[in-house]
Amino acid sequence: MGKLSRRNFIGAAGAAATLPMLGGPAFAKEKMKVGYVFLGPIGDYGWTWAHNKGRKQVESELGDQVETIYVENVAEDASAIPVMRDLVHQGCKIIFTTSFGYMDQTIQVAKEFPDVKFEHCTGYKRAKNVATYNSKFHEGRAVLGTIAGKMSKSGTLGYLGSYKVPEVVLGVNAFALSAQKQNPAATVKLVMIDSWFDPPKEAAATETLINIGCDIVTTHTDSPGPLQILEQRGLYGFGQGADMSQFAPHAHLTAIEDIWGPYYVERVKAVLDGTWKSADTWDGFKEGTVKIAPYNKAVPADVRALADAVQAGYKNGTYNIFTGPIYDQAGKLRVKAGEVMADKDLAVIDWFVKGVESAA
Amino acid sequence: MSLTFIIAAIVTIVGLTTPILLAALGELVVEKSGVLNLGVEGMMLIGAISGFAVTVITGNPWLGVLGAAAGGAVASLTFAVLVLQLNSNQVATGLALTIFGSGLSSLLGLSFTGRIIPVFGSIFPASLARDPILKVFFGYSPIVYFAIFMVFVVGWFLRSTRAGMILRAVGENDLSAHSIGYSVVGVRYGAIAFGGAMAGIGGAYFTMVITPMWAEGMTAGRGWIAVALVVFAGWRTGRILAGAYFFGVLMALELYAKAAGFSFLPSQFWAAMPYLMTIVAIAFISAREKTGSSAPACLGKPFLASS
Questions:
Q1: Residue B306, in any domain of the structure
Q2: Chain B residues lying within 8 Å of A194, measured CB to CB
Q3: A193 CB-near residues (< 8 Å, 6+ apart)
Q4: Which of B5, B7, B12, B224 best probes binding to A when mutated, by most A CB atoms within 10 angstroms?
Q5: pLDDT for A270-326, tens place per residue?
């Protein structure tokens, strides 16, 4: 089977290589194709929904020159490989693979098709034709932590995580540190549910956090389920990945929105111009990749001002929540006073800050 | 640990348990009739979207539950036609039903993503349902009481009614039941449809009670726990109730252990616990000849009357 598919691939690659030579001018006016590999359904109201919004922006801004193709619900295993190959065979010149678990598959397929550009989201493996991109979600978490620290009555905050990966750890730390700036005694109770998406378990975990005394719960899992529980209990929380206020009009204080559109447009343009280069992009508030949804009317004016100041600080580069002194859970000084953690250290972080109570 | 804390924990456990209990009761009746339907997960998903869709359209959650039962039953009948009429392999057909159900529910759900539905009000007066202590008895969705009620109905039906004994006879020895004039295929159709309806209501508990919304793959593997639970319980109704709550307690324990910061076990271990306990229980049961033999004798075998 492996032999057969390799032969097929060589044949197809050969055909792809000769086609432009045969009919060069005839193909010149064809629209360039752009491929997307999506983790979930485009209607998940979270991660994939946000990436699809970015894809739509490419269509609307460059629609006269490019055409986009996407595949939903692609598992993070070997089955992603034929999906990527198929997108190449359909003529895609640039392919965005939008989840961490596609990392090795992207590198493998990229080796087979050196003329096609690949962009892998949240990974760290690059090649000549593979770039990586990510968002500084943790900058948004600093805004949420500021609001939560100021608005929590109990000072006990809940945090629902998925897995102990750097992206999640950064979010937890940014949230805890910024909450402690408002309320030095604030603690964060952390529960990892070992899944990105499991609404009943997310709901039960939220109930658990409420029961042990949390009055504000934030999530790094993808469903609006926890917000619905908080709405029922008259407590507060935040949307993840997208504005989820329709699911919890009272509980939804604000949300971190992922804005991928401008990056996608820029990178697709670069392929059109022939200026595309492999790079590692990690953007945040400043570049517009992280955005905060409108505040709920339950957020008082003074809290809004604090939250706005954090956003403004990130935009003009004067604020960084990972500025020392920072202590870890065991009370050990990890970042000296006045020092700022470098991006390369943030990208591999695996320890929680003081005040985070977790079993992970 | 105060009383209100314990009561809040019990409320969470009931929420985790109810959908599994409903689906497992349905599957028990199916297996007692001699049919193994591994499509519980698929039927739950179809029930979940059917119930949600009917509630969106009619605005009435009671009709939504009926829609969920109907959706699950219709899905199960596709399985019934294949295994009863065409004698296809039950294991393979059940797996196909799970895959089919997850795909069909995604398709049906496309236009219902992001919609909001009216939820059940309490069937008891608010003074009882909202009371921090008494809510442990009165504070649940009507589906929770229905699930407990069905434990007794199914137990009574299988043990004490003529129809229940016929169903068991069909499951224990289909040829004998056939030779004394009972319709094996007819009984099994009924059992499968009942199993589908119960799985459908179990699925609707996710989309209509716990988190009233639709998202693809909402049931997240609970259907498989229900299938395991029937074996775990040794095909006995009372043990299904106990087993379902045992699983519910384990799942809640995982979350409480994590939230309380118990770090002596990695979190993955807690998450694997219900499955681990299933394997242990199955091994334990099959090691004991007497309980092991409580599996219906004709389970999973096609019925070939003409031979």
A1: no
A2: 267-268, 271
A3: A160, A161, A162, A201, A202, A205, A221, B255, B271
A4: B12
A5: 999 999 999 999 999 999 999 999 999 999 999 999 999 999 999 999 999 999 899
